[in-house]
Structures are given as C-alpha cells and as structure tokens.
Amino acid sequence: MEITEVRIKLMDEPGERLKAFCSITFDNCFVVRDLKIIEGASGPFVAMPSRKLTAHCPRCGMKNHLRAQYCNQCGNGLAPDRLPLDADGRAKLYADIAHPINSGCREMIQDVVVREYEEELERAKLPNYVSRYDDFDLDYGDYRRPQQTVAETRVDPPHQRQHSHFGNNRPNAGEPVRDGRGVPAPKSGNRQNQASSQTDFGAGIFPQQ
Hints:
Elements: E1 3-10, E2 18-26, E3 30-40, E4 43-47, E5 50-52, E6 54-56, E7 63-65, E8 94-96, H1 103-123, H2 150-153, H3 157-162, H4 191-199
Antiparallel strand pairs: 1-2, 2-3, 3-4, 5-8, 6-7
C-alpha cells in the first residue's frame, strides 16, 4: 500500500498552530480526508481526522459534548468528573476516526504529507495559485437566498381589505372615512342626498314598471 496523491489546503490565520488540512489517497482507490497539519515544537506533524466525544445526560439521555456544563436539551447540570482520561492523565475530548495502527504506517504518512505540505507552500507563492483540495464547506457568501416577488407572497388584495382591522383602513387626504366593512361612511348634514341615494338603489338594473 502506498500514498498515491496528497491534496493540501493551506490556512492563512497567522499565529495559529493549525497550518493546513489535507486529504490522502491510497493506491488510487481510497481517500481519507480532513487530516490536519499542525506546527509543533519540533516542526509540523500530522493529526488524524477526529470527532468530538460526547456523553449522555443522566436525566434525559441527550448527547452533549464533554466540555458542556449543562445539558442542551433539559438544562440539567453535568458532572465535571465524567471526562475520560488518556494514558498521560489528560482529559480525552476527541477520538480519531481513522488512524494508523503501527509506527511504520504513521511515519510513512507523516513523511509524505509533510513533504507535500512544504512543496505546497512554495507553489502558493506563484501567481494564480489554486489549491487542489476538495472543500465541500460553503462560505457565507456562497449561499444566496432565493428572491421572492410580491405577487407570490401576497394574499388576494380585496380579501385582505375586507378582513383588515378598522385602524388599518385609514383614508388618504381628501378621501371619505371608511367603516369596519371598508364601505365609505355617509357624510353628515346631507340627509337629502342620503335619502335620494336610498330611493335610487338599483336604478338602471331592474326594468321600469
């Protein structure tokens, strides 16, 4: 078994120990992603892909990260002594998803990845440099919410006007005041016109006798 391809994604945060992510391909047929290249005391080293360890809440059974002080589901306080310890007595918060099981394989991965990382640093200095790492994470600017037109979201305007509140039917300047049904209120002090409008109701619709 040999590593046939290494792809590097350099990180540009100055002062951080995490220098790059990488993926490795074995025998042109199997890929392992999200290995990390970290700057250590004696130079860069490779950390295997890992996941956060969780523990169940004793009250509701919800999984929570081991650093959590309270349950995300029920708010129950979580005991700080539930953290598992590694061989050196330190709290073990992560577990490797894929990792070598002997020192020979680990050294082979370390040598190939670090050498490719140093070559990637040189390639990054060239103009029009583009990383070959397949990054499936979206940046904030990559997401575009679809635009909706007013016609797609509005209800029928007459239906909306009929059932709207009286306070929302305020007229414009010069228009008559509307009552709760959206019908113009009769003008006060003009009873003659009011009576005439009542007798002329339906005029022109029904034939004259």
